[in-house]
């Protein structure tokens, strides 16, 4: 006897009144989450592995598991759920084998499957399952993260875990991870009035436990409650994809409308080609296809998988307001519901624009300050053979020179010593114009001394020495004698027998 038959005989039959929502968030460029909510089945998959990895993995997980949303699983429902998850894991491995660029992709999986008046719960990763019962919210799943391992071992506290830099490191996932998935499996009682919440860490990581509990307790409609939970995560920063699935345990069999209202969200809904691997669709950009629009024209019972249509017969994709209106009517929401959704992308674009403007202003301010700082200084350099005064510094910034010619002096480089010329040609930096002009005056004095003649520059020094023309010991001035005129053959020899040097009056012997 099946669990549903047993429940019907006992007078109890339950189902889930459910809803699912997914949002890319305010930072991420694509949605790597996928989710599903139906009358018998809830599922959350948070993908990882980059732009073309995590979204594929999560889409495969939901596409391979959503067929479980039916009431006839028999007594061994836990094994059925586990086997289906293992098949999804193998499908991901096969996708990596055929598309090596997806190597390393994976996904968390948290699934709740009804059978009669009980639930089978399977979990791997850091997505979460919460149960609100009699006003109390309980975390039912256990995170498979490095930080949770530290908490379990008593090495850090729960409060420290919330801010740990490695809190997002997941230890166990489905996908291309090189080992068989190790699932947490359990059976749970289905109690009328319970509310189940399955969510990715985009909610649990950005909304407080107290706010999640208050929202679940106060908003009766599952769809409106899911929308508010997404809003909480966005208000908390929205730095990750956000996906939630809510299921209320209600009495009786599902209505025909509820039985057909299973809802897929996130990457699997936006990008069905990721789940099916249809040829020619591998390189389509994320968020390019809306499965709801694609399947809207199909007959009841058709899934759209493998359906072939000509280009002229392809269904026209609905606009966003049309899809929102259908959701609003389905869940009996207010007329203005969904207006906030339009604002979220605008907020993200506005925030990015503001940050860009601030960065640009910072760069411009730094450049302006640096330019002003360089232009408050001066240096002495060479300009067409003369000593010149420059403003700025003797450097170039690419094609931009940081030095500007202010004045060319009358000091010629050729009148300076070789050492001084080299200094000038290399540029001599000074903090102020006055210091630079004083340096040019020093060079002017040196040039004057070098070009004014040795007689004028050396005679004073000789007179001070008291040698009257001698530059030092062993040096003397020679005077012609009456008997031997200057240059005669009888020139006087020195002590070594060599002719004495002839000089003019006032010359220094070297």
From TrEMBL:
Q: Which residues form the PPM-type phosphatase domain?
A: 13-249
Q: Name one Pfam family in it.
A: PP2C_2
The name of this protein is Serine/threonine protein phosphatase
Q: DNA repair among the record's keywords? A: no
Instruction: Give me the stretches of Polar residues compositional bias.
Output: 448-457
Which InterPro entries does the UniProt entry name for this protein? PPM-type-like_dom_sf (IPR036457), PPM-type_phosphatase-like_dom (IPR001932)
Question: Where is there biased composition of kind Acidic residues?
Answer: 481-495
Residue ranges for the region (Disordered) are: 1-31, 298-345, 444-510
**Transmembrane annotation, as ranges:** 350-371
Segments of skewed composition (Basic and acidic residues): 1-11
* UniProt keywords, alphabetically: Membrane, Transmembrane, Transmembrane helix
Is Transmembrane among this UniProt entry's keywords?
Answer: yes
